[in-house]
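ingest -> validate -> predict -> emit
validate: passed (alphabet ok, no gaps, 250 aa)
predict: started
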Amino acid sequence: MQWQDEAIIIGVKRHGETSVIAELMTRERGRHLGMVRSGRSRAMQPVLQPGNKVEAVWRARLDEHLGEFKLEPVRLRAAKLMETATAVYGVQAMGALLRLLPERDPHPHLFEALDVILDTMDDPADAGELFVRFELAVLNDLGFGLDLSECAATGIRRDLVYVSPKSGRAVSRDAGAPYHDRMLALPGFLGEAAVHSADRESMAAAFRLTGHFLHRHVYEPRGLTENAARDGFVQAALKALADKPERQAG
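emit:
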């Protein structure tokens, strides 16, 4: 068995004296593990860093085997990802999200999203918005997608300011007013008619929104705790946005 694919490194574990087990997010084959011989060598260590993009060739006698990777660097961005707290935590947090998905289950849109987000990590506002959308996409692929397109009570598509914490559906201002203290806020930048990028308040609301449904549908049923890297990313992104002026969406 053999295949070749674009991939992004999301994790590495030591294997024996000189080799490693590399965990990759591939474009066509989802999250995939394989052994890299001499992966601890000086030549390979700079390549085998989370966030780097590689061309991967996987070989194994049978499809169900661990197999071996041969990796060629395509985009080495790990050094840049070490420059900001949002990037350091962000690459770890997205790796943790991808591990919620079954191994070898294709999610090409998540590969594309990961590739884009890793290139925006030096801008906390852009990185935060894209990270929230990445979480929403992971929830959707796990079968727990949110419906933010219309009001769950009336069907209207305007003035959507709440999300039901039970159904994950948007609710309009008027329909949700009697229950506002039990609703989650729907940040304006996630709406279809958004005209502004996120500020600190709306970003914090977005993190609460995705965090609620990850905990309710994923972490709690699986007996998991929230990955610490997510909390680090959230705090770093909100701190960076604290004094940032509001920007018009492009």
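The radius of gyration is 20 Å.
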